[in-house]
Write a structure and sequence with these properties.
Layout lengths: L3 E5 L16 H12 L4 E3 L28 H6 L18 H22 L3 H10 L2 H14 L10 H4 L1 H4 L7 H27 L3 E6 L8 H5 L14 E5 L9 E6 L3 H6 L3 H13 L2 E4 L7 E6 L9 E4 L2 H11 L5 E3 L7 H9 L4 E4 H4 L15 E4 L8 H6 L3 H10 L8 H10 L5 E5 H4 L27 H7 L3 H6 L4
Parallel strand pairs: 1-2, 1-12, 2-3, 3-6, 6-9, 10-11, 11-12
Antiparallel strand pairs: 4-5, 4-7, 7-8
């Protein structure tokens, strides 16, 4: 694998006047910026419809896209929207509610114009024919709205059981067609953006959670793949025991897979899911890789993640099937945290790249900074779950900060944070990924997520301009070239 450098930047964090980052011209401008700075990888977070707390890791579907990433300006360029209200939004914070309120009226207009004038109609019909999942998802989200956005478990009985009969719903036909059209627009814009990135030698590193949310079409349609009771409620849920992030562990609430059933059915659920992810991303990072070896099984009745059991998963059987069915798939293992040796053996057996986090390697009590990297590693200054690099540095005492500065004194840069980033570029890791916040040296006001917390300010940080990024990122050119990351 060639040595490369990448940037972590969620779609929602891109600049935009419409309350949230989207697939508009600012996304293309971001590709140009990182290309000019010699970066080769753009890592994003899951593209799926965000769930509870606006988390991209609790999506309503593993296939559908989050509609508010659709650019209204691009719809206007296609003739699907006549006039767009001019808005100036300068806050460094996504406003999900205002974004939906603003964009929904234009989605309705676009659908009406498509029906009336036939704009993109043939392309839309082809999308429906080629994507079997979209009809089921559109029905799911339509019925969810009909049931006041409740979880499907609590829907009216007839609606809840539609997935078993799939009978026609003539009274909801237009609503379902509308939802399919929105997914068509989403993927039309996403694939255009991805194609632009690829043509500029930028690979998209996508992120998928290992688990799916209970309130999802994935579970509604595939109940047999999960440990559920007769009502569809989880009998066991996912999470991790007490660790660095939480003294009570992390109780995620996702249903646990029925691995015995999955294995008997040749892991079809996973093969289908990864096949789609392979289509929309160039490289796939699977969150919480360790659960393919052993997973923390928490009784649904427990209010915390303290009580649970480590259960072995059929990791080798799964990945043997994956590489037999999808031989050219590129997978990255999120292998962070306290792991038993068998997790690393599973990772290395399939020659998967793991992860290292600079923040976790810095110890002011050590005399050097010889971190344990290998070539088959993605080295980050931090991920979406960590503090920003500046926030992490500021947590140390003045005395500790002085020791850290001494550790990195061999790297020429304006400040200690850039020296740390240059240290990453100088590593043997085949891929180094730097979050945009760290390139800009921003403190924890730009943190994306704090594990074990839900809601604001998680998943809300955004840029309002590229001015500082354009200035700052160009400083890395010489260093990326010097370390052969091109």
């Amino acid at each position: 694998m060639d040595r490369k450098a990448g940037v972590l930047m969620p779609i929602f964090s891109l600049p935009s006047n419409h309350y949230i980052g989207d697939f508009g011209k600012k996304a293309y401008e971001f590709v140009d910026i990182i290309k000019n700075a010699k970066f080769k990888v753009w890592q994003i977070l899951p593209l799926n419809p965000v769930g509870y707390g606006n988390s991209p890791y609790q999506p309503y579907s593993s296939y559908a896209g989050e509609e508010i990433y659709i650019s209204i300006d691009k719809l206007q360029d296609l003739g699907l929207v006549k006039e767009v209200e001019e808005i100036v939004y300068n806050k460094e914070k996504v406003d999900y509610e205002k974004a939906r309120e603003f964009k929904y009226k234009y989605f309705k207009e676009a659908y009406s114009i498509m029906v009336e004038k036939g704009i993109l109609k043939d392309e839309f019909l082809k999308f429906k024919e080629d994507n079997n999942w979209v009809q089921t998802y559109a029905t799911f989200i339509t019925l969810k709205k009909k049931n006041d956005l409740k979880c499907w478990i609590d829907w009216e009985t007839e609606d809840k059981n539609w997935i078993n009969t799939k009978k026609d719903l003539p009274q909801l036909k237009d609503n379902i067609e509308y939802e399919m059209f929105i997914q068509f627009l989403f993927y039309k814009q996403w694939f255009e953006l991805k194609e632009y990135a690829n043509k500029n030698n930028i690979e998209i590193l996508g992120d998928i959670p290992i688990y799916v949310g209970i309130d999802s079409v994935d579970v509604w349609e595939n109940k047999e793949n999960f440990l559920l009771d007769e009502e569809g409620r989880p009998t066991f849920i996912a999470g991790v025991p007490p660790d660095y992030f939480s003294v009570t562990g992390q109780r995620w609430g996702n249903p646990i897979y029925d691995w015995d059933y999955l294995e008997k059915n040749n892991f079809k659920f996973w093969i289908d899911r990864l096949s789609w992810s392979k289509k929309i991303y160039d490289i796939i990072r699977i969150d919480h890789f360790r659960a393919f070896d052993t997973y923390w099984k928490i009784p649904a009745s427990c209010e915390t993640a303290i009580d649970g059991d480590w259960i072995e998963a059929p990791g080798y059987a799964l990945f043997d099937t994956i590489y037999r069915e999808l031989p050219d798939i590129k997978i990255v293992a999120e292998d962070l945290g306290e792991l038993r040796p068998e997790v690393l053996e599973l990772r290395d057996h399939y020659k998967l790249s793991g992860m290292k986090i600079l923040q976790f390697e810095i110890d002011p009590n050590e005399k050097n900074n010889d971190f344990a990297e290998t070539e088959r590693t993605i080295l980050y200054t931090g991920t979406h779950d960590n503090q920003t690099l500046k926030g992490a540095y500021e947590r140390f005492t003045k005395k500790q900060q002085a020791k850290i500065r001494k550790m990195f004194r061999g790297y020429k840069a304006d400040n200690i944070l850039d020296k740390m980033i240059y240290r990453c570029f100088d590593s043997v890791s085949n891929l180094v990924v730097i979050p945009t916040q760290d390139i800009l040296n921003i403190n924890d006001r730009a943190r994306l997520n704090t594990p074990s917390t839900i809601g604001s300010p998680n998943w809300e940080w955004r840029l309002n301009t590229y001015y500082n990024l354009n200035k700052k990122i160009q400083k890395y050119n010489d260093w990326i070239l010097k370390t052969n990351r091109y």
